[in-house]
Amino acid sequence: MNVHLISGFIPASDQYKRQTMVQIGVIGTGSMGGMLVRTFIESRAAAPEEIIAYNRTTSRATALSRETGIRIGRDCQDVAREAGVVFLCVRPCEVKDVLRELGDALSSQILLISIAAEVPLADLHAWTDARVVRVIPTLTSEVLKGASLVAFGERATAADRDLVRTLLKAIGRAVEVEEEAFELLTLLTSCGPAFIAAMMKEFAAAAVRRGAVSPALADLLVTETLAGTAGLLEKEESSFDEVISRVATEGGITAKGVAVISEEGPRVFDAMIAAALGEEE
Ligand SMILES: NC(=O)c1ccc[n+]([C@@H]2O[C@H](COP(=O)([O-])OP(=O)(O)OC[C@H]3O[C@@H](n4cnc5c(N)ncnc54)[C@H](OP(=O)(O)O)[C@@H]3O)[C@@H](O)[C@H]2O)c1
């Protein structure tokens, strides 16, 4: 697959505040919708009074409103009527029905940001008159880290692009890619936290199997090492190889362990990616 970066990384900025006061709508305040609301507010990309949300189960939206101070719409249309930009945060199988429910309320005056995996821009364009962007966020934005993938639809304007970049860079990094690359790259970003946690779980479990460390202590030590390694990698954009070479002296114990990962890793990770892409079904 040819992966093409339309533009490189947009660095995260702390305490960013939007210059323009566009009302932000959020439809679906589940795991990801709730996370976006919280992090837009925490990062000061938006003030609570600039966000209006609606969720099918109203108690969920009400709880988020109590927690964050955002406004709650009476229904989906209410959100679309009040907002200039609407984040659609429902499950992929629910997208078409919600867009049908929104009907004329979602006009070409509105920028629709769909975060649904597996619903292509072509379908979104067919189901709505709104200007459309696809974003694949990551749960790690909860701690204002991680990369959101972005693909702009053909109706998106230059101002839309600026707005989306501004909002997303407040909660991590925004990386613009061709939509065709989403399926593979989502494994590295949005699925990534689960893959990395699963790897770290096995790392800790291997130490526990040796019998001299409790699961709690092994988990703590691996978590601290993971956070510290991420810090080293981020510092001056260090590479994986640089970190390896700083720890693994030739012929030493770390080098022996790294050699095992280099030997076994390709088989494990090729299989993991193939399984996640559904190639083994
Ligand atoms: N989870 C991730 O890490 C991740 C990463 C990237 C992208 N995504 C995408 O994000 C989207 C949401 O995922 P999620 O994990 O946040 O799912 P989720 O927790 O199930 O949230 C979906 C929310 O949408 C609400 N909803 C459904 N139909 C609705 C309607 N007609 N009107 C208003 N609200 C409605 C649901 O309400 P109820 O409370 O009534 O169920 C629920 O709160 C998915 O499309 C997924 O592909 C997820």
From TrEMBL:
Enzyme Commission designation: 1.5.1.2
InterPro entries to which the protein is assigned, alphabetical: 6-PGluconate_DH-like_C_sf, NAD(P)-bd_dom_sf, P5C_Rdtase_cat_N, P5CR_dimer, Pyrroline-COOH_reductase
Main location: cytoplasm
Catalyzed reaction equations: L-proline + NADP(+) = (S)-1-pyrroline-5-carboxylate + NADPH + 2 H(+); L-proline + NAD(+) = (S)-1-pyrroline-5-carboxylate + NADH + 2 H(+)
Keyword Oxidoreductase assigned: yes
Gene3D superfamilies with a match to the protein in the record: NAD(P)-binding Rossmann-like Domain (3.40.50.720), ProC C-terminal domain-like (1.10.3730.10)
Pathway: Amino-acid biosynthesis; L-proline biosynthesis; L-proline from L-glutamate 5-semialdehyde: step 1/1
A Pfam family matched in the record: F420_oxidored
GO molecular function, one term: pyrroline-5-carboxylate reductase activity
Localization: Cytoplasm
Annotated ranges, domain Pyrroline-5-carboxylate reductase dimerisation: 179-275
Residues annotated to bind NADP(+): 27-32
Family label: Belongs to the pyrroline-5-carboxylate reductase family.
Protein name per its UniProtKB record: Pyrroline-5-carboxylate reductase
